[in-house]
């Protein structure tokens, strides 16, 4: 299997190659890494990796989260029981932590090193996206009056309060983390790539021939079926 783009950050890229899964098994999705500027990580087996700050965060096959602050730096272990994908913004990360089927969404500043769970681990939550102000978008399933057990897209403000369920049936399923700028949530799902208004849940863009979504120079791009990047046209956010 060829390489796929996993992360973009100011001209730096992380490429991954997915390793074949054992027959008749449901294992983790394991990849080998190729990280611009970090030759020591080339070929390393991992579950995910993302640029954060000037360094790289890696979820190992042991589900431990490690941060390489700069090329050649010794890794710093930040957390355990971590589930990909990793979302990053500045020096902050967001990810799921727990054991199947229960995962909490965690927010972490790698310079501080104190993981903060923002949802309860008795819920099943995954695929977070963190914005520059620390607000979050993520998916949860929970059998209650809010979503009746269906996967539902939520938004939580930077203060950790005010979780809101969005009235959309779309939710991320891509191994690449969603993008969230506080107003729009962009992600890949089983039907393509979409952008959702973080206030109303309205669809701002749909591309059924695209996969993962990335941010480049403030705009959104998607990977096509041939692996190349192309711009994604997005409607204005409603006011």
Describe the structure.
With 239 residues, the protein is mainly β. The protein has one domain (3-231): Neuraminidase, CATH 2.120.10.30. Helix content is 0%, strand content 51%. The protein is built from no helices and 22 strands. The protein has strands spanning 3-9, 12-18, 31-35, 45-52, 55-60, 65-68, 76-79, 82-89, 92-99, 102-109, 116-117, 124-130, 136-141, 152-156, 164-165, 179-180, 184-189, 192-197, 203-207, 210-216, 219-224, 229-231. The strands form five sheets. A seven-stranded antiparallel beta sheet has the order 1-2-3-4-5-6-7, with no helix packed on it. It is globular and about 45 Å long. The N and C termini lie far apart (44 Å). The model has no long low-confidence stretch (mean pLDDT 90).
């Amino acid at each position: 299997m060829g390489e796929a783009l996993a992360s973009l950050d100011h001209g730096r890229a992380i490429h991954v190659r997915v390793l074949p899964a054992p027959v008749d098994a449901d294992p983790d999705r394991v990849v080998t890494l190729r990280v611009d500027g970090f030759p020591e990580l080339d070929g390393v087996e991992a579950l995910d990796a993302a640029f954060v700050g000037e360094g790289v965060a890696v979820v190992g096959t042991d589900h431990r989260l490690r941060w390489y602050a700069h090329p050649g730096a010794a890794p710093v272990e930040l957390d355990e029981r971590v589930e990909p994908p990793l979302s990053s913004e500045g020096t902050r990360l967001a990810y799921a932590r727990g054991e199947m089927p229960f995962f909490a969404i965690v927010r972490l500043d790698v310079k501080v090193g104190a993981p903060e769970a923002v949802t309860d681990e008795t819920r099943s939550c995954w695929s977070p996206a963190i914005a520059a102000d620390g607000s979050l978008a993520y998916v949860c399933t929970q059998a209650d009056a809010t979503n009746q057990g269906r996967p539902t897209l939520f938004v939580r403000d930077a203060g950790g309060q005010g979780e809101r369920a969005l009235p959309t049936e779309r939710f991320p399923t891509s191994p690449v983390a969603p993008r969230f700028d506080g107003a729009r949530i962009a992600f890949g799902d089983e039907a393509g790539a979409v952008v959702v208004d973080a206030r109303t849940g309205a669809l701002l863009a749909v591309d059924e021939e695209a996969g993962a979504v990335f941010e480049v120079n403030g705009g959104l791009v998607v990977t096509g079926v041939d692996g190349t990047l192309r711009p994604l046209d997005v409607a204005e956010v409603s006011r």
